[in-house]
Amino acid sequence: MAALMLPSAAAAEDLNARAAASAKADDGSLRARPVLPRQPISAPRWTVSAEALFLGRSGAGRQPLVSLVPGDVYWWTPTGPNTTNVPGVEALNSGQLGQRLAAGQKLGLAYRDPSGIGAELSYFGVLGLKVAKATGPENPGQWLVMKAPGTFWQTQDYAYQSMVWQSDTRLHSLEANARLELSPRVTLLAGVRWLQLRDRLEGTLDPADLGQPMWKFTIPSRLSDAVPVAGSPIVANPPFWTTETTNDLYGIQIGANAALWEAGRFSLDATIKAGVYDNRARQLTLVSMQKQIYPAEAASSAAAFVAEGGLVAKYRITEAAALKLGYAALWLDGVALAPGQIQQTSTTPSSVTAQGVNHRSGTLFQGMTFGVEYSF
Q: How many Å apart are CA 145 and CA 45, to the nearest integer?
């Protein structure tokens, strides 16, 4: 061991002597040693994010839902003016059923290779986009009338009732994209996406009937005759009209992400995407006539277009974690919404038939996102 250590020690002393000599200039003064460059830390490859999503919806066409007809018009007569053929004044249409913000969740996972190529997977869903509008007792002496193609028409059973329309919408999105960095600030993306949009529209009379509307059996009748008859049996009062549509959209999309601004821990990014889709749409309609439910359904496929844009502001808490606050907007065109199916439904006194699916509607979702992301 001593024999091995002695040459090593001698070599070390020789290296120290050479280093000391090289540290002196020709004039004998000390010279600064060169500083080796610091090895760069590898950039994070994975990023996970979790966000709360708050979206509202606007755009559902202008399908008339409630019209007002003077109360002195007969409810029904074999001939002459009555509530089936007297044009009323529109009191409510589907475009007035704008849905306020509803909460959802958004999850994301992204991978970035040092070469600038990457991939991402993301999902978001929003349930409970609901709204209800009532037309009724504040319009005394006027019939509330809803009509559909064929023989169907609906009025209130009693003068004290309102006609209430409720809308309920649900949205899901799942997408996978490949990413390519063109520069440190601009990234292109392309991928596949699935969206599901479900829309439900329901019309009811509120409050429920207090008894059998016997006045309907007395022809002619005016609104003043629409009063409960003492001792008449109470009957079930189901929704007089219910339509539910389901859109499953499968498509491809392209887009871009850009870093717009950065200052210290703050940054602002923008994203835009657009794609074409195959929309497999179906509708189910339930119509109540004389308190009996008649179903009808149909399905079809058609092309649809989807565009999405958003802004995200980030505040980096640490090198790995950041808070996110953003605005998001999603436009769907070529989808089937529930109000659009009313004109696709044909009725007779004893049957209901769906003539097809109206998938020519467009709708806009927009709102705010808030969450965190972590890179490693």
A: 61
Question: β-strands 266-289, 117-135: how paired?
Answer: unpaired
Domain boundaries defined on the chain: 43-375
**322 close to 47: Cβ distance less than 8 angstroms:** no
* pLDDT tens string 58-102: 999 999 999 999 999 999 998 899 999 999 999 999 999 999 999
- 204 and 242 Cβ atoms separated by less than 8 Å: no
Name the strands in the sheet holding 64-70, side by side, starting at the edge strand that comes first in the sequence. Answer: 89-93, 64-70, 142-147, 153-154
In the block, residue with structure tokens 């409050």: 207
Q: Which CATH class is domain 43-375?
A: mainly beta
Strands 99-112 and 89-93, sheet pairing: unpaired
CB 240 within 8 A of CB 287: yes
pLDDT digits over 202-237, tens only? 999 999 888 889 898 888 899 999 988 887 887 788
Inter-CA distances, 293 with 201, 258, 352, Å:
16, 54, 10
pTM, 2 dp: 0.86
